[in-house]
Amino acid sequence: MSDTSGSQTNITDGQQVQLLERVSVAVLTTLPCCVFLFINVTMLFTLRSKPVFCETSRYVLLYNLLFADTVEMALGHLLYLIAVCRLFLTYPVCGFLNFLTNLNLTISPLTLLVMSLERYVAVCYPLRHTTIITIRNTGVAIVVIWAFSSLNILTRVLLLLEFPFKDLESLQMKDFCSDRTMSLGPRSNDYDRAFICVLFISAGVAISFSYFGVIIAARSASTDKASARKARNTLLLHLVQLCLILFSTIFNPLLMALSGILTRLVFLRLYIFLYVCVSLFPRCLCSLIYGIRDQTIRPVLMHHLCCAFLKPAVSNSK
Prior knowledge:
By secondary structure, the protein is mostly helical. 81% of the residues lie in helices and 0% in strands. It has one domain: Rhodopsin 7-helix transmembrane proteins (Rhopdopsin 7-helix transmembrane proteins, Up-down Bundle). The model is unreliable at 1-11 and 312-318 (pLDDT under 50). This is Odorant receptor 131-2-like. It comes from Parambassis ranga. Its main location: membrane. One of its GO terms (cellular component) is membrane.
């Protein structure tokens, strides 16, 4: 009897420790996610608060990028919390959430590509910038970006139709919902790898081309040195952001490889660190780049952030 009660106590203690670990992980990752979401939502509101932001092409492109990053951050963290809570979804629900995540994941590098080309035209062809980069052309570029991303999702859906779902005992998943678990066949895996390679290589080449083009143009006597230096730094930050987004796509396979090498405690700490740095931070980097460096956005953004923090304090004092 004493052995039985002791084993039950050990099992209960082990379950309590696991529950405490899950709660701690959820809290440690949800807090920065909420902060980043608040900053992004405030930035989105800022970009719709004045006509100058709605009538300038690079701010319209910034809004599109920021919207995709915000949705991607929210959906990614939702899937993360579902995995932490050890909830198993059905294949249709998991597929729907993953398709939305992949839709926004594709939009971000494509928008960075267009934004980099816009900076290149602004520095290298300043006299033709207003005729090339118009609101109409910007709207067409955004529609093409969303159409291309939607076509990628449609292709993924068609590849999933090859999987014999009718042979499954149930549509209930036996693994955590992730992009890896929804790759249900070799053709789907090959397509994902090929698409990611083409997407990020194209975006990387375009951003690098724009960056070196701005460097060459900065040596010209007719080019505004300050504008060229600012554009060069922005393009460099875009390249860093693209690399972080690319690294976030291999986040789960990397962790799966490390799980068999590291201890549970070390793996848990590394998981939290990489998740915040690789999955969450790149989605907020755009707000930090433009919110701090852009002289037009910064005062408006700071005003909205201060109002958001001061209003609750004023209401509480009353």
